[in-house]
Protein: Type II inositol 3,4-bisphosphate 4-phosphatase isoform X4
Organism: Clarias magur
Amino acid sequence: AFYDVITVGAPAAHFQGFKNGGLQKLLSRYETEKKSYSTAYQCIYYSPENTAKAREILSMVAQLQPLICSLAERLLLQAQQRCGHGLQEALKSLEEKTEQFVHSLKDELVKNALFALHTARPGYMNKSQISNRPETHVTQTATSDATPNQNQSREPNVVVCNNVSGRETPPKNEARQPLKQQDLPHHEEYDEEEWDRVWANVAKGLNCVIAMVDKLQEQDNNNQESAPDQALADVITSHSPAADWREQLSPLVAALKDCVKEVAERACRSMTFVLLQEAACSTPSGLQLQQRRDTVFSQALAALACGFVMRLYSGIEDNGFMRQLHTVGLVAQFESLLSTYSEEIGMLEDMEVGISDLHKVMFKITEAASDDPNNLQPTVSGRRDHYTVEVPLPLQTFQTLPDEVRQGKLLQVFPVLFNVGINEQQTIAERFGDISLQERINQKNFDVLETYYKSLSDRIPLENLPSFHMQPDVKELLETLGQNVVTKKKKNVEILWLAGAICRRLNGIRFTSCKSAKDRTSMSVTLEQCALLRDEHQLHKDYFVRALDCMRSSRLAQGEGAQWDDPEAGSVANHKPAPRQFYPIALLLVSSHLLVV
């Protein structure tokens, strides 16, 4: 199971071509166009990170607000029943979700968007225009009580707001009376601290509820510790209105719910404004670019779903693996052999964005309706900002899963991409071109892999991870990989070697790809198989090249160069892959059959 590799062609929009580059370059150009477009059409530009954050906040608010209200009602129900243990459990859940709600809105984007929304309103725009005009008379732009019979004097360059239907535009043959500045609707000044106060009221309301619950339980404990002759008085007190827990908690809970509602409404308005600005700034090329991104993502998602199902079935009886799966998640390492030359630059740019978008995918394991193969197929649901892949398992298999997984906990995957070009085109790129794209991708994804390892080591005992005979610990492998990522070296295939070894040590899912998952991919996986036989299963170094030729014989036999001496056999003895083994001369004459691993 540790040796499984999924071979897949590079996720890319081949049908759209790469004349203008791939997704990474096109997205950068698109954002530049949006900035200029926003200036021309007076809309506000928000970066992709901000718009993604806005969608995330809207989703979080839509999920947490009703949940907080239901937990508040549950708290009141437990208070009515005077159940101390149930009251504490309900309070704990309410406190956790409310803190999550407050934390999700603790973002400068919400505050800035509220101010932007305030300044974009017609009243504010009118006030700004008035303050900048030296004349006494101005034209009314948008009022709530305007009627078609009102006579107005109109200046030629005034923008009319909120008059889409034209009902507020007076007939041309009617005379228009000039309006003075004081006739316009009053627009309050924006209080920058207002959002902070409203947002903080939620936390204050929660603290009041917690304090009241503690007070009620403390009084109840004191009553229970009273002398026996006070029993009658306790009974009377317990039925008095002053001692009714629900009545004492209801005003505080209602205040908390009102605060949550007000914050949710303001946050939703501001984040919707951000998304509307994005739509207003979009250029006509945005739709085609989104289509390209969806095309690339669908290919990457299909590969990831395949790899996840394979890894799940192979490790379902491993308690350590299942614990890692629902506690931290799995790393999915994509090994790419694309060159940074010509069209393959665009493919690599497509692949980078597609693999990065996989972080929006979560997995959920469910119980299949039956053992019919049609009922065991994964299904995808959700929207672009969040996808859930449901993986149904047979009943007997499903019952063996940990409770967290059976209860529907979402499982996370951390995608990483490492690329090293190995063909002749990469040689040209290294001598005369630019390989900064490859260097940036490797550095960025190394940081992701390192962060995942730190999270894993903090929450899972490293003794549960698989061990190998010839490899040092993961920390040492990561340090070596970090050094190789920043080292200027031509065709540094040791980056792929180390990344693959780390992924296997971390119970990860491995993918290998080139342009079509045929030639370079098959050379890579066969070399990896031989290396594993040598390192883990005592294959003698003298038989390494012969074993490699045997694995490639069905492909190499079709070319005359199948028999070649390897001048770099010494690097094999040192447990390092030789570039020629990745890409032998005979590879130019191989067949087009896909190697299945």
